[in-house]
Write a structure and sequence with these properties.
Layout (H helix, E strand, L loop, with lengths): L5 H7 L4 H12 L5 H10 L6 H12 L14 H12 L1
Helix pairs in contact: 2-3, 2-4, 3-4
Length: 88
């Protein structure tokens, strides 16, 4: 099976929907209503849902949330071993 290329995506009109939404927000402004973004993208032949646009807008407004690592996990066995030795 052949891999899809970026050129074939552009021909079919699929492309990267998230990037198209971000580009439209950058062009129109972050305070633009999702309904207006959907209409602008529809004029370019790109169909997106209101949920997609709202989610991208939320990530543009709060870029740090939802990214990064959760932090180190606590090693419970080491804590329990230490507590057991302290009691003896």
């Amino acid at each position: 099976m052949a891999k899809k290329t970026a050129a074939s995506d552009k021909k079919t009109g699929k492309g990267n929907l998230a990037q198209a939404i971000r580009d439209e927000f950058n062009k129109s402004g972050i305070e633009t209503r999702p309904r207006d973004i959907i209409a602008a993208l529809a004029a370019r032949g790109i169909k997106v849902s209101p949920a997609q646009v709202s989610n991208i807008k939320k990530t543009l407004l709060n870029p740090t949330k939802g990214k990064g690592t959760r932090g180190r996990k606590v090693q419970t066995s080491a804590i329990h071993d230490h507590a057991a030795h302290a009691m003896h």
